Amino acid sequence: MIASVLAHLLRFTVLILIQVLVLDHLDVANGQMVPYLYVLFLLMLPFDLPAWALLLIGAATGLTMDAFASTPGMHMGACTVMMFLRIFLVDLIAPREGYEFGMKPTLASMGMAWYLTYAGALIMGHHAWLFLIEMYRFDNFLSTMGRILLSTVFTLVLCLLAEFLTARPKRGRA
Amino acid sequence: MRDLFRFLFRVRNVLLFAALMTVSLLLLYNGNMHHRARAITSSNALVGTIYSWRKEITDYANLKEVNRRLAEENASWRNRSVDAYTPLENTFVRINDTIHRQQYTYLTAKVVNSTWHKQMNFLTLDKGATSDVQEDMGVIGAQGIIGVVRAVSPHFASVKSVLSPDLEVSVQLRGSAHFGLLRWDTSDPLTASVVDIAKHVRVAPGDTIETRGGDGIFPRGIPVGVITEVEPDAPGIYLGITTRLTEDMTRNGFVYIVRDLVKLERDSIQQAHSAP
Asked: For the purposes of burial, counting CB atoms within 10 Å of the CB of A67, is it exposed (0-12), middle (13-18) or buried (19 or more)?
């Protein structure tokens, strides 16, 4: 239990640092693609957390990002939206037998099809809120839609890479 | 009554969600509209410290460029120094200056973090309240304006860059003093628009845009941009003007924070005058 909490805290710290020290300074396609890999921390939160905990952890993570990005409330709102979606999405795309004990919302544990739906939809929700708020004025709607789509793909690819690189081979199964 | 509680318990997650979203929107509103009461900005100590570590490392990569720019700036100061002029007569005349009074003082600061590819951009500087930096002070670079201080902590200041759609700087045409506002609505970090210049004004690409001064933020005459495009057929009574910013916002190393020594005096007279 404690080990698991520590692992999540460590992941939180590492991902936020990667985000603010490296990814925030990337310039891909003239600012059209901005990856927000720190949401991987929220994606990997365990299934057995109650909904209120998910919402609060989401809001706190967003606030931390806001502190670095000087954007009070922006990431907080996006992460809260994302965690709210997650509550419903996880039930909606549950495997036929439901979630078994020990299952984790990771690529290795749930398989490619489930993970793409899960991560894709949640990242899209997060980015949509973030970029629509960031746009501040709704004058170039199409370009913002483009940013949302491109950045979602970018973040999703980074999440998949991270999942591939950190997945340990399964024990116990041949 | 019990039904009510049961109902509230059933929708508790929706309520929590609504509460958190309200907080986030309030923060967003307060953060953008008023620049007061913001504990959460990049000027707070932990965030500033982490960004300065990053800067320590990335600084080495930029040394060559920084040197070049400092040398250029030195040359421009040298051009203005007494040594650069040959005296017309062989006697110095010392004038005890009673006409000019210093109005602005400058403080150098290092940019420890900056963004330029977002839709709203900020810089973090390594000088803060202990160096007498205050909100609403202008920030300029060697080539032109950069932004306005929005929040300060003891050792850091958070600056809203001119690359923010809601920061409008009062600017004028060099020479003719027709004035307008600089507004960043081009989504391109190298250019911005000048709005509110009437159609009868003669403007041509290549003309220089400079600060108008008088707002207590920037001194008059700091270069802002060079006009690249004039649209005489823009809708309305104003010209559509695009300008290339003279300061390259994608690479600021050292900047100057401007302190207006008579700001308080001007603000108080303007306030007294506009009070009902």
From this structure: buried
Of B20, B42, B119, the CB nearest to A136: B119
| CATH ID of A2-166, from 1.10.390, 1.10.1760, 1.10.12, 1.10.3470 | 1.10.1760
Q: Which residues of A touch B42 (CB under 8 A)?
A: 67-70
pLDDT at B188 over 60: yes
ipTM of the complex: 0.82
pLDDT tens digits for range A19-65: 988 888 777 766 677 889 999 999 999 888 888 999 999 999 999 99
The chain B residue lying nearest A70, using CA atoms, is B41
What is the distance between the alpha carbons of residues B209 and B217, in angstroms, rounded to a whole number? 16
B13–A34: do the CB atoms touch at under 8 Å?
no
Mean pLDDT of chain B: 81
Structure tokens given for B42: 């990049």
